[in-house]
What does this fold into?
Amino acid sequence: MSELTKRVPKQHIVGFIGSIVLTVLAAWTAVGSNLPVPWIITAIMVLAVIQAFIQLFMFMHMTETDSGKIQAGNMLYGFFIAVVIVAGSIWTMSFGYTHDHGGNSDTEQHEEHMDH
Amino acid sequence: MSAHTDTNTGPLEYRSKEGRMNILGFWIFLGAEVVLFSTLFATYAVLFGRTADAPAPSELFEMPMVLIMTFLLLTSSFTCGIAIHHMRRGSLKGLVVWLIVTLALGLGFLGFEIYEFVHYAHEGASLPSSAFWSAFFVLTGTHGLHVLLGISWAVLILIQLRQRGLTPVTSRKVFVVGLYWHFLDVIWIFIFTSVYLIGMVV
It folds into this structure.
């Protein structure tokens, strides 16, 4: 692999610049764009996943050596379980949430429901 | 790919069977860490908005602060990669210098995080303030403890490097602590996005 002998680690620099761009883009999408909230959440989560893959492939060299496939499979399995736990928890708890608060899930509710 | 399977010319950390198995084993540990953090993310997501009498996250989260912490950790992940690159070129000095830069950035991140927590506590948001803030401090605090552990671990590896130099064993240890460090940034990307950015938007 030519990466070994190069003086300048091109892959790392590309990954670093990519990460900065994705971070700034996500921050701007959150506070600078006027997109509807569900769109913002979807967009920044997609940006986060792309950035995580940059770390795994360009910085951590997840797929190098003959164990690469096992390593990648193991991490994908970990992320799959993570998505199931997070999405499953939100889905399960969403029922009681609507019932308790009459569908009012905005951040001001602590002022309106001080007695909770 | 093939260069890494060559036990004579590939990177030092892959030259022994033991070294390769250790690295594979560490990847399996990282998979379990992803799941550990997912339970904390799930708790946080479920308790989002349950701030009771304490301030809402949108009142306390500040973009400049969060961006500084993110860039500190992101840059440290990059410099850690540069350290590994120097190690693979056989440069002990380059490795040590970049590893120290990495740790300095990591300490900077921790400093900001401690400042942030103290600031929130002054504003009336601490661990016992509400369900939301409990979930917030446990999630970000667990990540912060991982960073502290990573720094301490890397310092011990630096001492070993000084005593033993670059050998297949020490390179494997550096590579593994490097993986751990990059992984902390992976978790932070999701904290940055789903805790701070969403906390500022919703």
Residues 131-164 of chain B form the longest helix (34 residues). The mean pLDDT of chain B is 93. Chain B has one domain: 2-201.
